[in-house]
TrEMBL record:
Domain Glycoside hydrolase family 38 central: start-end pairs: 565-645
Family membership: Belongs to the glycosyl hydrolase 38 family.
Molecular function GO labels: alpha-mannosidase activity; carbohydrate binding; metal ion binding
Pfam families tied to this protein: Alpha-mann_mid, Ams1-like_1st, Glyco_hydro38C2, Glyco_hydro_38C, Glyco_hydro_38N
Keyword Thylakoid: no
PANTHER family: ALPHA-MANNOSIDASE 2C1 (PTHR46017)
Name of this chain's protein: Alpha-mannosidase
One Gene Ontology term from the biological process aspect of the record: mannose metabolic process
Gene that encodes the chain: AMS1
Keyword annotations of the record: Glycosidase, Hydrolase, Metal-binding
One GO cellular component term: fungal-type vacuole membrane
Catalyzed reaction equations: Hydrolysis of terminal, non-reducing alpha-D-mannose residues in alpha-D-mannosides
Amino acid sequence: MGGDAPRQMMSSSSAQYPQLAQRPKGKQIHHIYRDRLGQFTNGGQYKQQSLMAKLYDARLSDSPHVTLEVWSAPDQTRPTFAEATKKSNEYSKAKKGDVFGPSWTTHWFRLRFTLPHEWIYKPCVELHWDSNSEAMVWSEDGNPLQGLTGGGERNEWVIPNHFRDFDQEHTIYIEMACNGMFGNPTGGDTIQPPDPNRYFQLVEADLVVVNLDARALFYDFWIIGDAAREFPEDSWQEHQALQVCNEIIDCFIAGEGSRSCIEDCREIAQKYLGPHVDSEKVYEQDKSDDIVNAIGNCHIDTCWLWPWAETKRKVARSWSNQCDLLDRYPEHRFVASQAQQYKWLEQLYPYAWDRVKSHIKKGNFQTIGGSWVEHDTNMPSGESLVRQFLYGQRFFESRFGERCKTFWLPDTFGYSTQLPQLCRSAGMTRFFTQKLSWNNINNFPHTTFNWVSLDGSQVICHMAPCETYTAEAHFGDVKRSVSQHKSLDQDVTSLLPFGKGDGGGGPTFGMLEKLRRCRGLSNKVGLLPKVKIADSVDEFFDRIERKVANGETELVTWYGELYFELHRGTYTTQANNKRGNRKSEALLHDIEYLATLATIQGRKGYKYPKKGLDSMWEDVLLCQFHDCLPGSAIEMCYRDSDEAYERVFKTGKKILKDALVALGFDTDHEKASDDKQKPIKAESVTLQTLSWHRETPKHLTSYDDDSAANVTQLDDDIFELSNADLKVTVKQGAITSLYDKKARRELVPEGATSNQLVIFDDKPLYWQAWDVEVYHLQSRKELKPETNSHISASGPDRVAIQTTTKISDKSWIKTTISLAAAASAASSASSRLSQVEVEAEVEWRETMKFLKVEFPTTLTNTEASYETQYGIVRRPTHYNTSWDMAKFEVCCHKWADLSEHGYGISVLNESKYGFATAGKVMRLSLLRAPKAPDAHADMGRHHMRWAILPHKGALDERTVRAGYEFNYPLRSLPHSEPRKIKDLMGAFKLSEDSDKSLIVDCVKRGEDDEDASNGDMPAKKGRHVILRIFDSLGGFSRGRVLFGPVKVGRVWRCNLLEDVIGEVEVGEKGFEVQLRAFEVVSFKVELT
Ligand SMILES: [Zn+2]
């Protein structure tokens, strides 16, 4: 009984293993069968016989079904829909093959179509439009529907169901922009300056019926093919992938590409992908270990190879696409950062804005980043970084009821060491970035880690291991999310940010199809890490944060800056723009302080100029975008930013004057305080906008005064400048000796020249405006003047030597080296040091040259110090390791310092950010001359100042204060009640006995104050002053903030967003503060 049954079964259900060999069968030659796969989907000579010929069932592009007319907007205007569709605009006939241009022009098409009867019930009909440029589909009644990106990037618009009717003609408009995703680069090299005469051919304007099965098979085959190509040959999964692919091709050939054979092919694909890849259900299968978190995004550079005006359209195009895709793919999640881009959409595209808002409400379109733009973090001041968060978070909260939890900055050129402290205080405990994968010297060692600020604050930082923020959602991206993950010991999860950036419009339907298949593959055969669509980036970080909090893992730490080993030229390129930034920051600081005082004790009717300040800040913050301030954008962008800074200075000048007038100053009779020949009148009052008391130097009348500045000509073209502190010998425009009389030491090495202008050949490997490469140092050439210097100021307040140096036939630099009377006698605040100041005027017409000024010293240290936001960064002066060497050019703010025990030299500047200290030589970077992407970057006239500040003793508050004072020129104005105004300007200053390391860096009114609010958020009762105080030297600091004559109620500690954290005890005249090293603290002071 037991023996019969199996025999029965065998004979009925399966064939017998044959006794005799039927025919020869060889082992597959692996690479031949693998290379064959390309025939099926790659186009080329077999396209008509391949799957590619089956993707569309029908195609129409001519009358009577499709008619096309065009109206070209004048010049480079970008008219609105209403302007473009005015009756008076004459639309003329157009057709496929026509050419439009030149670069940056706009062409509006009116497209009328009628669907053939037999198409009405087809499952999918699309419009395919390819003008090789960016474009937007508009409805007839003026709603922007979807963005298109030419060149095959994103050509399809799915015809909505309400267009599917019999014999009905429909009209849509298409706004064609004559630029591609990356603007209009010349000769196809992305970073070359725009070609003004680029023309674009309309190659596709077709209605097509899509064969959805063929399209689905295309993605099935793509992913299984990738498994065959990318899985290791020693895995069974690789071999099976190859067999499945070959089986699909064989089946397609046997069925001659028929509909039914395509269905059969898809069934074969299921052997490898499983049965669920046609829907989001694939992500419901086997959810264990789904560790790769894909998230859609579209990184739109706020300006770069196109101006702001085009970015506004890119945002509308890209985000409209995503709204459509979010409707069609339930699993899809999309994140977008940059409050500024949302604000543009809100102002210019109400329909798209409503669509975005409704998706944000649903939770699938997600705000992220919490900053105004994705800004540079090297150069903006501390307060600017604060405002990026304050303006960003307040925008998100006011429009969507929620702040962002994750600071999102995938593409900026290095990360300031104080970011963890600042973004935490702005409500974000996590940070996402990616750019360090571009390092061209050292490989950054972590993926997920604790990033620790100067003050010890930390955030969780994640750098996507797929090493891009615009992944195509390829099989390889998913694979690399584990193979390149450097923190697997601590946590195996990762983010995979996918989607086309910069006007490519974000994720495509194809990317979502590929991800479904990657997941299906992982479910079915394994080996590939399991990808899911992240619910949100916040959820990804929440899980890690919980894990850390619960002690389930301990992340590796990285202390200090995330120095980017590339793009070091961005500290110098586009000098005027950087100068605009520094000057705006100082102006805003002063206005906010004085306007705050004016609202407390100013003339009746004075109102805090919130509107003006907001517009100034928004311009400044916008210009800090990571391709604007760094200097890596095209010329058009710098015309935009020049205009923005012009607006800032114009508004600033007006509202500053208003505040001064409200405070009772006579603004019509100002004497410039830096005009040393004409000292200010006695009744003038010095504006005290910094947190310590400054005095205007007294005017000396005699050279006999101990502190007087003297100048003597020692020899032909050799001069000596001196005061009570310093003796400076200038020979041929450079300093051959700098002698500290009190310390009795020489600061310029024997035979060397300080304040020496040097020029370098500057041809980086590729990214011209961005990079300066280490080999440029080998081309160092000293610039020597051809004519003699002369005395341009002869004391006793100030002496100066002026020298003109020819750089080339086209360029020259005029420097004025000056020494003022010794500060000790000129001011009672005798801790002020004497400094050698240099003013330079440059006519700069060079090509690929780098101008710097050098200061060789007699100091020894393996580390130099550089001012950064709210603190000091120390960096090596040697090249011991490749990590040290990589820092051959670094970013500094108002000063850099090289000190040894007992003595040091600080170099101050008022608009520069690039610096290097190599051994004993300090070097300030002045001007570059890259020719791409702006062919005229930095050409023309420049004005700049720097100073050499020798100091006996360690680096301390004298340097920090000198840096501020060098950047905040003293102003004195007549006032009718000098004592009263001086008293008022004593408010919110630190008491004399406070630690000198403390700085009150910002005094402003509360954002939500009823008399100062901009109305974006509900105003609250009461009036407040916000103070921002930090420890500038890196140690525990204690001090007392004074109220002066201001009547104060309660005082709270608050975060950067001005949320109250805890109450502070208030004394009669002020309150105590205690800060840890490099801590930044904000206080909210109630006015009564
Ligand atoms: Zn970018």
